[in-house]
Design goal:
The protein folds into six domains: 65 residues, Phenylalanyl-tRNA Synthetase, Chain B, domain 1 (2-Layer Sandwich), CATH 3.30.56.10; 114 residues, OB fold (Dihydrolipoamide Acetyltransferase, E2P) (Beta Barrel); 190 residues, Phenylalanyl-tRNA Synthetase, Chain B, domain 3 (3-Layer(bba) Sandwich); 67 residues, Phenylalanyl-tRNA Synthetase, Chain B, domain 1; 202 residues, BirA Bifunctional Protein, domain 2 (2-Layer Sandwich); 88 residues, Alpha-Beta Plaits (2-Layer Sandwich). It contains 20 helices and 41 strands. The strands form twelve sheets. A seven-stranded mixed beta sheet has the order 27-30-31-37-36-35-34. Strand 3 and strand 4 form a beta hairpin. Helix 11 crosses helix 13 and helix 12 packs across helix 13. It is elongated and about 125 Å long. The termini are far apart.
């Protein structure tokens, strides 16, 4: 929020502080001043009058002028197209510095003519173009006839001598968005008193209201309307425009400006309706519409059920707390207005404004919380200003639905609690002084200070909040730095060791670690969910910043595919990524490891025949290596082919990792439909429940010396049902070998007419080896026969003839 120092100085004496000193004090007290801006800047400026103006003899666009500055008459060469004799102008004298252009004005000669200064435009003085007309942007500023020649404060004459603080309050400090409330904050920061902000407002001859109000939604428990008749639309007075400019709001007309002024002062947003344009004098607040609506910015927005709207005869006139409608806007022909002041549910206003991408000054205030006690005062103040500045003739009584909810409950605070939490030695006098400075009502009863926060401080709920007020006002330098006392010796947990081993191994393989958002879009939340916990309900944010970040992810693969897509469209087609991160469901939290190998393993431009895409075996080999490093024996898990209707993984090249009936991982190639959805190339992926993996019983890897005894091998071709996994065959071979099979693997698979329908042939190489003796055929043959019998019994496997 931008706030005017000139406006603040009306309520708090800040004369002894420079803007920089003031900003530092406010920031130290907890409200960050992000930037200090000036409406206009320039040194050595003066008001002058153009006595003569003639064309430059050596230019078709320059003019030679004589300017009276009171103490002297200066010759100045000017290039503005609108300069003319008799004008009152702003003159930058020699040695003047203009920060907006970063130039210092010097005496000089321009095309043979001496020039002793510069006649300025407001743009050159740093005024934002949004406040200026096209003529002002393209030429010098022409002052009114009442401007005094020789006045050395032309910026003050124009009301441009204001300094703007750009505040960045924390989300719980909605009070900072009100000049009235922030005046108390400022006064507390510099230990000053606040001059009376409120003024007594009384109306003579109020007439009964011509309006009715009602609310059909719990999202609006307070809704008030005040009618004001016979207003005149005209330009706002200078003081009002200056205050608005000082808060970075452009003046429009007196009616609109009054609404903005009251909102800035009190923090209560108002909305002005043209009472003659609305179809009924009955205002009804609802949240059950589903239609399109044209707002004041001429944009059509889609209203959904839940959005708060103000209606007349079932026609929408305003999006509650966000923006009014084109069908009821105040125009130059407006004669009668209805002023709205309401309290809308902050959660719903935020949801609607984010969904519509429509963040307004009003919605910002509703989201952070409104002081409901100011509702009636804001309406009365607006009506009073309409009488004074818009010549309103008739003011109606306020008609209201509901009652304001003001919760300012006393909170007990003891000195022991303050010093116990902060580790300080403050006295009760120190503590009481803080709340006196903040203008919090307080009363000392024995050893307890009873503090009642004002209604605008919606961030104060309990004792700890009061303690925070004490330390931020007394200064954080009062906190003593201490080291924690502990007898624990630091060491890594089993989980940390496993995580570290995996991370370093993957990095050593040239795989980059990725970090991605835990929040994802609805379109991604149901992709790549293979493990049982991932079937649990999603965690959904009630108030997401954007629809793209609404759901907590239950897996990591969709995020890695999105990262691959980003790399792909930045001409990095071959990507290796892994991520270790927590995922969440409504019932549990899990830590996952996900790996993605995308594009080509080899991409040799000089030898395309050797180029190789990543495939199932690359990702499987990587996972197997991780398990071996963790000391997890292959007997403790099995690889199971995925179901045929799996939408995420390629059916012929993907499998689950299981222990018993628990699926704790998945390996495979991404389904072509998913490649199309995420717009990426072929890729192999895996996802593993890391905590489950590291809880699997493992054995330490031991060094085994190389054997000097020979091994013997046999090749067999088995005919089995095609739905039997080769992994099960290998396990059975090793299980029935009395420990003599050191290695067994498939080296060929055949399906076709020679083995029959529904069958396949597996060619398996079996290596027999003993560390104790040289194996002879007489020792190997019985074991080999035993293996064949076990395969036949368990799988119906037969040797292929």
């Amino acid at each position: 929020m931008d706030i005017s120092l000139k406006w603040l100085s009306k309520y708090v004496d800040i004369s002894e502080y420079s803007p920089k000193e003031l900003a530092d004090k406010i920031t130290v007290c907890g409200v960050e001043v992000e930037d200090i801006k000036y409406l206009a800047q320039g040194s050595n400026l003066i008001i002058g009058e153009v006595l003569e103006c003639s064309s430059h003899p050596d230019s078709d666009h320059l003019h030679v002028t004589k300017v009276n500055i009171g103490s002297d008459i200066l010759q100045i060469v000017c290039g503005a197209p609108n300069v003319a004799k008799g004008q009152k102008v702003i003159v930058a004298l020699p040695n003047a510095y203009l920060p907006a252009k970063d130039i210092t004005i010097q005496k000089g000669v321009i095309r043979g003519i001496e020039s002793n200064g510069m006649i300025c435009s407001l743009v050159e003085l740093g005024v934002d173009k949004k406040y200026l007309t096209e003529e002002q942007c393209n030429g010098i500023e022409v002052l009114s006839n009442d401007a005094k020649v020789g006045d050395t404060n032309p910026l003050g004459y124009l009301g441009l001598d204001d300094v703007i603080f750009e505040l960045k309050p924390t989300p719980n400090r909605g009070d900072v968005l009100s000049v009235e409330s922030f005046s108390y904050e400022l006064a507390a920061c510099i230990n000053k008193k606040v001059k009376n902000v409120r003024e007594d407002i009384k109306f003579d001859n109020l007439v009964p209201s011509s309006f009715e109000v009602d609310s059909k939604t719990p999202s609006c428990h307070l809704f008030s309307i005040k009618g004001v008749r016979d207003v005149k639309i005209k330009e706002s007075p200078k003081w009002l425009k200056e205050y608005l400019n000082g808060c970075s709001i452009r003046s429009i007309n007196n009616i609109v400006d009054i609404g903005n002024y009251v909102m800035l002062l009190t923090g209560q947003p108002l909305h002005m309706y043209d009472a003659d344009k609305i179809s009924s004098h009955k205002f009804v607040v609802r949240d059950d519409f589903d239609c399109d609506y044209v707002a004041l910015d001429d944009t059509t927005y889609h209203i959904e059920k839940g959005d708060i709207v103000i209606t007349h005869n079932d026609n929408i006139s305003c999006i509650g707390g966000i923006m009014g409608g084109k069908n009821s806007e105040v125009s130059n022909d407006t004669k009668n207005v209805a002023i709205e002041a309401a309290i809308f549910d902050s959660i719903q206003v935020r949801k609607t404004s984010i969904r519509l991408d429509l963040i307004s000054d009003s919605s910002t205030r509703f989201v952070r919380g409104i002081d409901e006690s100011r509702n009636a005062y804001a309406l009365d103040l607006a009506a009073k200003l309409l009488v004074e500045l818009a010549d309103a003739k008739i003011v109606e009584e306020t008609v209201t639905f509901g009652n304001p909810i003001v919760n300012s409950k006393p909170i007990s605070l003891t000195l022991n609690r303050v010093n116990g939490l902060l580790g300080t030695n403050f006295t009760m006098k120190d503590v009481k002084d803080v709340f006196d400075r903040l203008a919090f009502e307080n009363k000392l009863e024995k050893d307890t200070l009873i503090v009642t926060p004002p209604s605008y401080r919606k961030d104060i709920f309990d004792t700890e909040d009061l303690v925070e007020e004490v330390i931020r006002l007394k200064g954080f330098d009062n906190l003593v730095s201490t080291y924690p006392i502990t007898s624990n010796v630091g060491s890594l947990t089993h989980l940390q060791k496993g995580r570290k081993l995996i991370r370093y191994f993957l990095l050593s393989q040239g795989i980059d670690e990725a970090y991605s958002y835990s929040l994802i879009h609805n379109d991604m939340k149901d992709d790549f969910l293979s493990m049982s916990f991932q079937k649990e309900d999603d965690v959904v944010l009630l108030h997401p910043l954007t629809e793209d970040h609404k759901y907590f992810r239950k897996g990591l693969l969709s995020s890695l595919l999105k990262a691959y897509n980003y790399n792909y469209y930045h001409e990095n087609n071959d990507v290796k990524l892994f991520e270790i991160s927590n995922v969440y469901t409504m019932n549990s939290e899990h830590e996952l490891l996900s790996i993605l190998l995308g594009g080509k393993k080899l991409n040799l431009e000089w030898n395309e025949k050797e180029n190789q895409d990543y495939n199932f075996y690359h990702i499987k080999g990587l996972v197997t290596s991780i398990l071996e490093k963790l000391g997890i024996n292959e007997n403790r898990y099995s690889l199971v082919r995925i179901e045929e209707d799996n939408k995420d993984f390629h059916i012929g090249a993907s499998c689950y990792i299981k222990t018993g009936n628990t699926i704790w991982g998945v390996i495979g190639m991404v389904h072509p439909n998913m490649l199309k959805k995420y717009d990426v190339l072929n890729c192999a992926v895996c996802e593993i429940d890391l905590r489950y993996l590291l809880d699997i019983k493992s054995s330490m890897n031991k060094f085994v010396p190389l054997s000097n005894l020979p091994s013997t091998s046999r090749d067999i071709a088995l005919v089995i049902d095609e739905n039997i996994d080769s992994d099960k065959i290998i396990r059975t071979i090793k299980k029935n070998s009395n420990g003599l099979v050191s290695k067994a693997y498939v080296f060929d698979e055949y399906k076709g007419e020679h083995v029959g329908s529904g069958k396949k042939s597996l060619a398996i190489h079996i290596v027999y080896h003993s560390d104790k003796e040289t194996l002879k055929d007489s020792m190997v043959n019985p074991i080999h026969e035993n293996i064949l019998l076990a395969l036949n019994k368990e799988f119906g496997a037969k040797l292929r003839s």
